[in-house]
Design brief:
binds zinc ion; mainly beta; 0% helix; single chain; Putative regulatory protein, FmdB family; Regulatory_FmdB_Zinc_ribbon; three-stranded antiparallel beta sheet
Length: 69
């Protein structure tokens, strides 16, 4: 399930929610309960290079497609 990043305009917090793609545009309340949030462009879902390379979402950053290994 894709993850989406949101930012709360009330408190400035950023948070992620995993939800079905068809619900991506739905409102998402921040962890503090504010409803005034905006969806950020995901850096996880689309790599743009290679097409089939998995996007590492956690880890040390090495071997994450930078060609360091
Ligand atoms: Zn908030």
């Amino acid at each position: 399930m894709p993850r989406y990043d949101y930012r709360c305009r009330a408190c400035g917090a950023t948070f992620e929610i995993s939800r079905p793609m068809r619900e991506a545009a739905d409102p998402a309340a921040c962890p503090q309960g504010h409803d005034d949030t905006v969806k950020l462009l995901s850096t996880v879902a689309v790599t743009g290079r290679g097409g089939s390379a998995p996007a590492p979402s956690a880890g040390g950053g090495c071997c994450g497609g930078g060609g360091c290994c």
